[in-house]
């Protein structure tokens, strides 16, 4: 995979004392209560927790899509909005969020156009990304012609097009079936190993989190908070056999205990 | 291929029946001429049709372009500045509710040359295009917005990369509805213009001549023009939208911007007051800007004093109130009948598909038919009494209502219907538990959309045929050059129409709370 995307630099993430409250029908819902977290440059962090624990809100705050009531987010020492404008962030959502009227190639190019960068210098890079996510031959297909997994790959390629130093993934494979999900996990690891961007992945899947992340942040709800952080010691690159390994299942049980034991849910 | 032949056979049978009815004067003593008579009359009039058509088409086209340019620019401005949309809401509703015939004489006396026609065509296209474009601009998938925002893109970036492109189907749908409306507007502005050319003038000039074939010919020619304009826009739209076929403006509550949280009541109140006053300011500013003689052009204050303190105030009020008393009940009754029949037929269409399949194409065609062209035909068939008023009103309001309601019924949530199927529900049960409740918003929208048309239908019938009510008062005032009365009637007609619209909205809001709890989400 020569000429594959490499991040020029990786930024660390630092979240300090984040608070966010929503008003629903007059009642206050505390989505985040005093959440602090440090992510080393080049690290892979998974956020896991029950629905309503604020993990997606946390990700949206890091991406600058929402603002905390209190607390700060620093990405490589800068505010999220500043980083956004440099194209330092790559965000993927549960839905591929592709523009239906654009081809694969043009969907991948969208961030460059928003940032006002020249497209002509990047055409070869876009071709490489299409190859990287295994969509060669589908450059001019439109989203409606692609399967769910292929659309999600386009979205992943789009997040990489600006050579981001931080990748924010909000359940990017949540809508895919288990089989497809596993192969996408393998591909994501491969892509991540090549880019080495600091990554935060929001997921519902314990196995997905264990397979991909350096550490797992378990969150709880009412109020949304960090319950504990579990280190994942497995060496990289991790191979599919890991899913069947005894240590893997041991750690899986530990995460499950933290998830179901602490909240009493 | 087989379907083609059945269609040809059916059309042939209808034409044959029509020919027989016409030739033997079977309907209303020859009020229905046979197709061959109409074609013959066309041939005899072949020299005069081209200038008449050109005289209508030219201003209609300019008005179409002008009105749509303003509508699209307004929609973009509204999406970028929601407060502006809030401020202009009164103006938008007023433009929607204006019965074109009410301001036609007023445009004729204030504007030179073909400008009355251009203006009325532009006013007729503004609302559908603006609403559909705004709806398209607003109704954007939120996830790509997040993608653009995560690269630091602001409102302009979202507009440029996302909204402008994704609003195209909506905008095209608006243009499609607007195209026949432009032609209708241009024709209506010929009423009382004294101009010799134009299909409207041709129609008016032929009314008392006892030549049904010519009146039918003009009506059909106008319909063909409107249908052609519709088809042209539909062809353009087809490139951008998968769901062609709709000829009504969207049923969604597009005029209302989403309410912002935070109960700043005082600010809301101030905005509402401003929205109420702005139409009057625009009215005053347009007159001032064009420097129209105050003898002819009356500003808001002049109309107010004409109705309250002027020398003929009491007489004028009396005449208008009497006319209102004659017009309003029929507009209301016509609206209710049209909605009831439309709902009934749409429901029957769910139970027996054939009903919808048969009615939908007819509705689509008649929707584009300029109703002025229809009125003389109704007069020929039903005489000059109340029956004509009622028939015109019902015909004008029925088809858009039917299309909107039938669409609502067909959009019943599929999973809910499947769920009922699991329990072996009958068609009636599915209708009762799912289809009907889920189409209540569409019934409300239909009522709101056609309420102003009901008043327009009544006024056209009164102007052309029956000699009662607001339409007649307007026609008489025009004949006597009673400028004060022309402005007063126009103002009252618009005010009544807006109130009508607001009343329906009020009922709609109540009903939607019960039937569409998700609508505000």
Q: How would you describe this protein?
A:
The complex is a heterodimer of chains A (265) and B (521). By secondary structure, chain A is α/β, with parallel strands linked by helices. In chain A, 34% of the residues lie in helices and 24% in strands. Chain A is built from eight helices and nine strands. Chain A has helices at 55-62, 80-85, 104-114, 123-132, 148-160, 178-195, 206-212, 246-263, and strands at 13-24, 27-39, 44-48, 70-75, 89-92, 166-170, 198-203, 215-220, 225-231. In chain A, the strands form two sheets. Chain A has a six-stranded mixed β-sheet, with helices on both faces. In chain A, helix 6 links the parallel strand 6 and strand 7 (198-203). Chain A is globular. By secondary structure, chain B is mostly helical. Chain B has helices spanning 2-23, 35-44, 49-80, 82-87, 89-97, 100-110, 115-138, 142-149, 155-166, 168-188, 199-206, 212-238, 265-290, 300-308, 313-351, 353-368, 371-382, 386-410, 414-422, 427-466, 469-479, 483-515. Chain B is globular and about 65 Å long. The model of chain B is unreliable at 242-261 and 517-521 (pLDDT under 50). The interface between A and B is medium-sized, with 26 and 17 residues.
